[in-house]
Amino acid sequence: MVDINKLREIAKEVISRDDVRQVIGYRPGTYGFRARPAFVLEPDDVDELIFTPACVNNLATYITLEEKLPVPRGQEPDSRKVAVMVKGCDSRALVQQMEEKAYDREHLLILGIPCRGVVDMDKVNARFPDVLEKGEIALEGDKFVISFNGTKEEVAKDELLADKCKRCRYPTPLVSDQLLDDEVERFAEDDYSDIETLEKRSQDEKWAYWEEKLSRCTRCYACRNVCPMCYCEDCVLNRIEPMWMRRSVDVSENTAYHIARAYHLAGRCIQCGECQRVCPMDIPIMELNRKFYKDVADLYDYEPGTDAEASPLLSTFSVDDREDFIL
Amino acid sequence: MAETTKMAEDTKTDFDPNIVAFLCNWCSYAGADLAGTSRIQYPPNVRVIRVMCSGRVNPLFVMNALQQGADGVLISGCHPGDCHYMQGNYFARRRFNLMRNFLEYVGIEPERVRMSWVSASEGAKWKEVIEEVVEGVKSVGPMDSFKRRQLNW
Amino acid sequence: MAVKKLSKDKVGEALKELSKFRLVAPARSDDVVIFKEISDPAEAYLDYGNSTVPPKKMVFPQTETLFRFMVGDPELKEKNVEEEGTTVIFGIRPCDARAMSIVDKLFAWDYDDPYYQKRRALTTLVGMACTEPPSVNCFCTSVGGSPFSKEGLDILLTDMGDYYAVQALTEKGENLQKTLSSQLEDGGDEKKVEEMARAAEGKIKRSIKTDGIPEKIPTLWDSDVWKKVSASCLGCGTCTFLCPTCHCFDIQDEVEELGEGRRARMWDSCMFSEYTLHASGHNPRPSRKERTRNRISHKYSYYPNKFDDIACVGCGRCINLCPVNIDILDILEQVVEA
């Protein structure tokens, strides 16, 4: 369990440094069990910081999301470091961003939080519907303890745990300047059984499945914007010349959008699952990304976000790559 | 003569596929050209787009071609080790392996997305490649799924 | 108009009757509630809170053709909205209907938008009162609405247990009620409906006092409140696309190979970075801070100044579905305190 006072102390030390501009962490949400990102600029603000299983957001996305606006003449851009709190999965985003040379390592001060799992808010809301007053979620042993409206309830961890955590192989951040808790041993494996089930369907069934899902897509771009790996300033999904997918919303353009985005994440998606979490229409976007992830692991023995010194997948090749599909 | 008859029979079937082929300038395009100058007969269902290297082909071209209604897409390049630009075909090999598997997963039949190595001297192989690709596309029918269909029009 | 009754076991019949028109009702796609055109009454899902995407998309489609054109043909084929026929939106919540009457003003303001207005004229709204708030984040009562609000609706249904109370509110509503004369009975209790309305208002838990906010917001142009509230914003379009009062659109031409094409308009979001991107490359709203400031200002200041209505109906969708829990009520509280 993360000692919250230690976390706040460390955050306070960090933000008090001259060379740190902000600390990105978590704070309680505005209602119910939610937590939300916190951007601490002053030492006094550290008291709002928390870390609980409700802290589902991947904060690594803010490192590349923040706009680099031009500064007035005579001024220098603010080159101070950004400190960010990352769970195991989130840290892989930072590693992958560094692998792609998105920024210098010195730009970041990484506060790693070894994680024992976060909740799936949909599952929490289904189990405890209509909770407005701010509640808390804690993990004690193998049970989640849910406190709200003056009561406490224990729920088996498995019932509320996010699906991605059930196959998490990197609970401890892979890169950090400081770890805010003791390391967590790997507690799960990923056998891609969800993908294999879908792979076994007939072609007609596959398309029927995706047609239903992708017809719901409203092209809100939440999946793209939340993704820590989607940080191109000139995103292929927005291009007008060439226009890969039109702005009109129908199943054809939506499918093109999702195919293109998934392909651009091949060998880059670090499986944080945020895209699926944020989708307002409950489209199982991870099922798309995981197909690439599985193939990349099977065919090329490569896992993104694990080695900052590695070369990106599609800018390398081996003379022994499989070519049984080639005439 | 027998070949012409077979071809005529094929084109009499209901479905005449439209296949877009991206051919690398140095090997496959030259090989296809050789098939032509040698008067080798092969199905006329392929529209050729010449690119300098198979490594130039963006997998989104495949997605876009299918979306615009192509029934099949073929990418053809130099044999591994023989790429005019040394490595382009190796990159292409990786990209299309991944893209093809993914499109199959979404419901696009693998027969629609094909890749081949055809060198500049392999006019005969070109014919075989085309025949196999056309047959494969015919067996899965016209492109449907996410083809642009002017739904909101 | 006297309150009638629609027995719940006659709802299927009533929907069947209404499917003579273009009938739109809440339905399910997996577990997601959406409003869509249904032909089979069995598709209707009435045990719902509210849909994710508001039914504004039936009157203001996410993508719609404005006209079609053909190379060589000097005539443009304008889209004939009347072809779609009369539409009945069954089960729309009072906030979403009220949102339509708020947006109506904009589409009749500097330019009479023929597409929107024709569709709106051909649409009858059969509302479903909120006897329970669909969400803990509903705050319709703070912005001029209520769970039983009649504004914008042609008919209001209230779930009374084993029957719905049916109140026709407009001429359109009365006409539609006539087509359901075989399914409707007399004897609805208006007083009871009023009581339930009062009770429902009490169940709305979240609120904000909006007095003075439209005047205060422009004074906060340089305030650092905007940087603070937008720091976590992802710049996606979720809040705008799910908002029943948002109405911005982009227009694009789409051309097919054979020289035929169409001009279409589709929803756009002021939260996208390209929204104000100029052709020169300059962007007057370069970061999420400016765009957030714009969005809040538009909804709670510019729109009420022009049209006397806050462009927010308190449906709570943006609060529920914002990926990073940016909460409009939280922002407004900070605006008030700033």
The dominant shape of chain C is globular
Q: In terms of structural class, how would the helical and strand content of chain C be classed?
A: alpha+beta
Sheet/helix structural class of chain A? alpha/beta
Number of domains of chain C: 2
Number of domains of chain A: 2
Q: What proportion of the residues of chain A is helical, as a percent range? A: 25-40%
- Lateral arrangement of strands in the main beta sheet of chain C: 3-2-6-7-8-9-1-10
Order of helices and strands of chain C: EHEEHEEEHHEEEHEHHHHEEHHH
User: Mind describing the biggest β-sheet of chain A?
Assistant: 5 strands, mixed
Assembly type of the chains comes to heterotrimer
Helix content of chain C: 25-40%
Radius of gyration of CA atoms of chain A, rounded to a whole number? 21 Å
* Extended strand count of chain A: 8
How far apart are the termini of chain C?
48 Å
Question: How do you describe this structure in short?
Answer:
Chain A has helices at residues 4-16, 61-65, 88-99, 121-127, 157-160, 193-199, 203-215, 222-226, 251-264, 274-278, 285-300, and strands at residues 20-28, 35-40, 81-86, 108-112, 136-140, 143-148, 151-156, 178-179. By secondary structure, chain A is α/β, with parallel strands linked by helices. The relative contact order of chain A is 0.13.
How would you portray this structure in words?
The complex is a heterotrimer of chains A (327), B (153) and C (338). Chain A has helices spanning 4-16, 61-65, 88-99, 121-127, 157-160, 193-199, 203-215, 222-226, 251-264, 274-278, 285-300; strands at residues 20-28, 35-40, 81-86, 108-112, 136-140, 143-148, 151-156, 178-179. With 327 residues, chain A is of the alpha/beta class. In chain A, strand 3 (81-86), helix 3 and strand 4 (108-112) form a beta-alpha-beta unit. Chain A is globular and about 65 Å long. Chain A starts with a helix and ends in a 27-residue tail after the last helix. The model of chain A has no long low-confidence stretch (mean pLDDT 95). Chain B has one domain (16-139): Lumazine/riboflavin synthase (Rossmann fold, 3-Layer(aba) Sandwich). In chain B, helix 2 (28-37) packs across helix 5 (123-140). In chain B, strands 2-1-3-4 form a four-stranded parallel beta sheet, with helices on both faces. Chain B is α/β, with parallel strands linked by helices. Chain C has an eight-stranded mixed beta sheet. In chain C, strands 5-4-12-11 form a four-stranded antiparallel beta sheet, with no helix packed on it. Chain C is 31% helix and 21% strand. Chain C folds into two domains: 4-202, no CATH class; 213-337, no CATH class. Chain C has helices at 11-18, 56-59, 94-106, 114-121, 171-179, 190-202, 213-216, 225-230, 238-241, 288-307, 317-321, 328-337; strands at residues 4-7, 22-29, 32-37, 63-70, 73-78, 87-92, 123-128, 155-159, 163-168, 184-185, 249-255, 260-267. With 338 residues, chain C is α+β, with helices and mostly antiparallel strands. Chains in contact: A-B, A-C, B-C.
